[in-house]
Design brief:
Blueprint (H helix, E strand, L loop, with lengths): L2 H7 L14 H12 L10 E6 L2 H10 L5 H4 L2 E8 L1 H9 L9 H24 L3 E5 L6 H8 L5 E10 L13 H4 L9 H17 L9 H4 L1 H4 L7 H7 L6
Antiparallel strand pairs: 1-2, 2-4, 3-4
Length: 243
């Protein structure tokens, strides 16, 4: 396979970083690479907050669930879905804009995710490590206040970037046969059961080797409780009414 495909297949989350700092020029280039991602109707419905103040990094680490690498990485970015900029731009042309549509929330969320993944790939191509921080959504109102986010902007996730101080094993992914379905959706239970065995072996073999789990069991917290039940009310308060 070509180097790009090999790079994409080699992703792993990095949570330990050296003290080496990312040059500002490289960070800006990573953001430019992010801007090259596909964007719905060229809306570019995203903003990225580069958090540099140590006290703000510490606070975000706390708000994200005590994830110390948020404060310890060379750089920390918060990727935000931003419908403020495009709706105001359309409004200045004289258009009567409608805010709070569900499709606007989807467009902005997809746009920022695509943009962030471009940043991640560009960073890894330069020998950097990254770790997405979904814990930003644990306390989205406090994060928004800290970053002074206006209405119609919400924090989707964070990203730690830095030079890796470790190279963890790559987690096995689901078999492609479970993901790629020809013509129609087909049940993949047998493939998932086999994958659970693969993941159990991975957890037993990796450094530490004391996690007795698999893929299906790891999903339990996502579905046996109301995970981040605050998000709907928070989004409505931010102007994403989902009309």
């Amino acid at each position: 396979m070509n180097p790009t495909i090999e790079l994409l297949k080699s992703h792993r989350s990095i949570r330990k970083f050296t003290e080496q700092k990312i040059p500002r020029e490289l960070l800006v280039e990573l953001i430019r690479a992010g801007q090259g991602a596909a964007t719905s109707s060229h809306v570019q419905a995203y903003s990225v907050i580069h958090v540099t103040k140590p006290e703000n990094r510490e606070k975000l680490a706390e708000l994200a669930g005590g994830q110390g690498y948020v404060a310890g990485a060379s750089d920390f970015l918060v990727f935000c879905a931003d419908m403020k900029r495009p709706t105001e731009a359309a409004e200045r042309t004289g258009a009567t804009v409608v805010r709070g549509m569900t499709e606007q929330l989807l467009v902005a969320s997809v746009d920022v995710a695509l943009m962030a993944q471009n940043v991640a790939i560009a960073a890894e191509s330069e020998g950097l490590g990254i770790c997405y921080i979904g814990g930003i959504r644990n306390n989205p109102a406090a994060v928004s206040d800290l970053l002074r986010l206006p209405q119609h902007v919400y924090p989707v996730f964070g990203m730690c970037l830095g030079y890796p101080a470790h190279q963890p094993d790559i987690k096995p992914r689901l078999p492609v046969e479970a993901i790629l379905k020809e013509d129609y959706y087909r049940d993949d239970r047998e493939l998932v059961e086999a994958y659970d065995e693969t993941m159990h072996a991975y957890y037993q073999a990796r450094k530490g080797g004391n996690k007795d789990s698999n893929w299906s069991r790891n999903l339990t917290p996502l579905f046996d409780s109301k995970l981040r039940a605050h998000m709907r009310d928070f989004l409505i308060e931010r102007g994403f009414e989902m009309k």
